[in-house]
Amino acid sequence: MKDFILKNKSILLGLSAILLIFIINSKILISTINHDFFGIVVSLGLFIIGGRKTNFKINYLVFGILLIFEFVSFRLFTKSVHFLALILFLCLIFHYYTQKFSYIAFICVLLFSTIFNTFFIHLTTEIKQNLCYVVYLTLKNFISIDKIEGVNFYINQSKITIDTACMGLSMFKTGLLSCAILMTLEENKQKKMYTIGSIIIFCSLTVLLNLLSNYFRIITLIFFDCTQENLLHHSIGLICFIIYQILPMLFLIRFIKPKIEERNEVVKPSKIILVLISFLVVLIVSLKIKNENTNEPLIKIPKEYEQIKGVWVNNEVYKISTPQKLIYIKTPSHNPLVCWTGNGYNIIETKKITANKEEIWFNKMEKNKEIYYSNWWYECNGKKYTSFPEVMFLKLIYNSPIILINETYKPN
Questions:
Q1: In this structure, how many other beta carbons lie within 10 angstroms of the beta carbon of residue 207?
Q2: CA nearest to 203, candidates 116, 275, 107
Q3: pLDDT for residue 266 is more than 70
Q4: Where are the transmembrane segments (predicted)?
Q5: DSSP secondary structure letter of residue 402
């Protein structure tokens, strides 16, 4: 036993470091994995299966990105960015012991991060509305469509609403994950590696095929008048995904081949100092996030709302109900589009409008055949913003307090 420990002490120390970090961050890991368990496990599996030995100093790049992510997490208390740093820490340790790395799996890791989720959610509604309009232009020459309003089609005085799953995040991720699996299998088959250019080209084609798949999915759903979630609805989505995404990908992969020969030269071992510094940084940020006081309110109520009686839903959300409006004041990590769709509202239209010479977001929504309007924006030092990255940059650099304000009301 003693000989075994002495012989494998380096690996045992690495596993101990990982275990310690995982124990400290157990709540964050459980919360995140519950949302994307399959994608995260497959991504890490691809990293192990598809990893190739390389003398390129990729560990320095991963180390640099990890430091940036942990700096952001330390300043903003963003658990999603910290989780991504934890994954990068695993990649760094894997590279230290094996000198292997997989660019394809690395892209998958980023794909299943909450950062990507936040970025994509901001685009989903707009992409879906544009897809619906293209479908309208296609079908109006074949069937009688009275009008289109956002994601609502009015046909023969009846309304057909396209749900959020069309051009949804899960199908988009599944398409790119399928792309990664195909490329990894092809690399193993050919005993060669893809260039960065080839990876970008195939991923771009995958995104285009995903748009095409959702386009035909919407057309089929309208023809069958099947927009309610049921077996037929999900079957149509799956069939369109296979026909317009998976099969074309299987065809295209025959022409996009890995070209870089695997080298047989001795790969220099990575420097342990990068792993040690990464461990200390991750440990410090983990302890700070773990010891964060989750009972105190994380936002300050603006002066114009202080006189209106409200209630704390939790330490991140303050709710004000008036006869005219329902007002939520939240931390900027919340997304009103997700909140409303999660509560059963259909987002009909999303656009930027100008109010008091400042840009804000406007949503038109429907629930139980009733129309609602919602105005929302980020606020920093009394100024309104519509860009999430912009306000987070302000908080990162100047540590300025940021809040999200969402006002919902019925039209007159």
A1: 13
A2: 107
A3: no
A4: 12-30, 36-51, 58-74, 80-97, 104-123, 160-182, 194-212, 232-252, 272-289
A5: E
Phi and psi at residue 324, in whole multiples of 5°?
-95, -35
Instruction: Supply the pTM of this predicted model.
Output: 0.70
Q: What number of residues does the chain have?
A: 412
- Neighbouring C-beta atoms of residue 231, cutoff 10 Å: 8
Measured between alpha carbons, how far is 131 from 167 in angstroms, rounded to an integer? 8
| Strand ranges inside 166-316, DSSP E | 192-193, 260-261, 311-314
Question: 326-330 and 402-409 as β-strands: parallel, antiparallel, unpaired?
Answer: antiparallel
For residue 95, which amino acid is it? H
Spatial contact of 201 and 256, defined as CB atoms under 8 Å apart: yes
Cα distance between residue 135 and residue 219, in whole Å: 6
- From the list 281, 274, 276, 297, the residue with the least C-alpha distance to 401 is 297
Distance CA 86, CA 92 (A): 10
**Cα 84 from chain centre:** 11
Token digits for 221? Answer: 């759903």
The residue behind tokens 């195939």 is 202
Q: Within a 13 Å sphere around the CA of 411, how many CA atoms are in the beta-carbon half?
A: 9
d(CA 100, CA 94) in angstroms, rounded, equals 7
Other C-beta atoms lying within 10 Å of the C-beta of residue 365: 23
In angstroms and rounded to an integer, the radius of gyration of the C-alpha atoms of the chain is: 24
Number of C-beta neighbours around residue 11 at 10 A: 11
pLDDT digits (tens, 9 = 90+) for 188-224: 888 888 888 888 899 889 988 988 888 888 788 777 7
pLDDT tens for 356-411 read 888 999 988 888 778 889 999 998 888 888 888 888 888 878 777 888 999 998 88
Torsion of CA 47, 53, 58, 59, to 10 degrees: 80
